[in-house]
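2024-03-11 09:14:02 INFO worker-7 job=invfold-0412 stage=load source=structure_tokens
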């Protein structure tokens, strides 16, 4: 039987291949979610999640599954957390940054996670206590301690969901204080960028567990900090801050 890393890499890369195949042949179905024209799902999202669920249940028939597009599968405390395409808007518009996000949790503890960016041929993987990797090479968060020299990222899912509380005021507070702000369009990829030291921090609000679970363990295993906007450590899908340790406190002060 495959070990957990080999299993996750195999199904992640195959999911990425399927995503590219769907986009190359042209998407036939782009639907609105909950009658919201800003929030979409494609036939690729559904097909890729079906593939991932099938492979997981073949290998681990008693495990639980939480996915964005399908019904939850309840089993034991071993839980797979899936986002078949994180960044569906980018995917549907022919843009390069979208990801397949897979996390494995036992009880309340994330044990492994992977974020795959198929267009970029990037496979990020982390396993608890074993570090974080990009295409097999170890990665670490940035050592930067000066906000003026930092590049950070954020997202605006709150606006797509038409929520009254949004991210615009925080964006305006932080933008003048850093070297640059990036908008990746995939929370999983934002977190992978922090883990790889390519950005110093990321924040966003009103997310879902499947958006961030795999990215969270990447950041943690790469030496970064995960908290809510008050600085409380841990996963809070309503508020997430991921940062290199030297800049985390400063970012929290700007929240």
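2024-03-11 09:14:09 INFO worker-7 stage=emit residues=255
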């Amino acid at each position: 039987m495959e070990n957990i890393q080999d299993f996750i890499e195999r199904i992640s890369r195959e999911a990425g291949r399927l995503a590219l195949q769907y986009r190359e042949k042209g998407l036939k179905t782009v639907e609105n979610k909950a009658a919201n024209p800003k929030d979409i799902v494609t036939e690729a999202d559904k097909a890729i999640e079906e593939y991932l669920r099938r492979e997981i249940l073949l290998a681990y028939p008693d495990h639980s599954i939480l996915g964005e597009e399908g019904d939850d599968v309840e089993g034991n405390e071993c839980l797979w957390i899936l986002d078949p395409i994180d960044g569906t808007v980018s995917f549907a518009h022919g843009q390069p940054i979208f990801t397949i996000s897979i996390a494995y949790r036992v009880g309340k503890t994330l044990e492994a996670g992977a974020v795959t960016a198929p267009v970029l041929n990037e496979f990020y993987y982390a396993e608890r206590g074993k570090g974080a990797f990009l295409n097999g090479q170890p990665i670490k968060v940035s050592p930067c301690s000066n906000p003026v020299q930092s590049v950070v990222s954020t997202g605006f899912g709150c606006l797509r969901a038409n929520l009254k509380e949004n991210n615009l005021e925080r964006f305006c507070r932080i933008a003048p204080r850093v070297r640059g702000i990036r908008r990746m369009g995939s929370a999983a990829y934002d977190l992978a960028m922090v883990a790889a030291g390519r950005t110093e921090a990321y924040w966003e609000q009103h997310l879902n567990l499947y958006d961030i679970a795999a990215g969270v363990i990447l950041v943690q295993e790469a030496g970064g900090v995960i908290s809510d906007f008050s600085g409380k450590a841990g996963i809070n899908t309503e508020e997430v801050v991921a940062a290199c340790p030297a800049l985390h406190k400063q970012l929290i002060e700007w929240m």
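2024-03-11 09:14:09 INFO worker-7 stage=report msg="Residues 18 and 48 are 7 Å apart (CA to CA)."
2024-03-11 09:14:10 INFO worker-7 job finished
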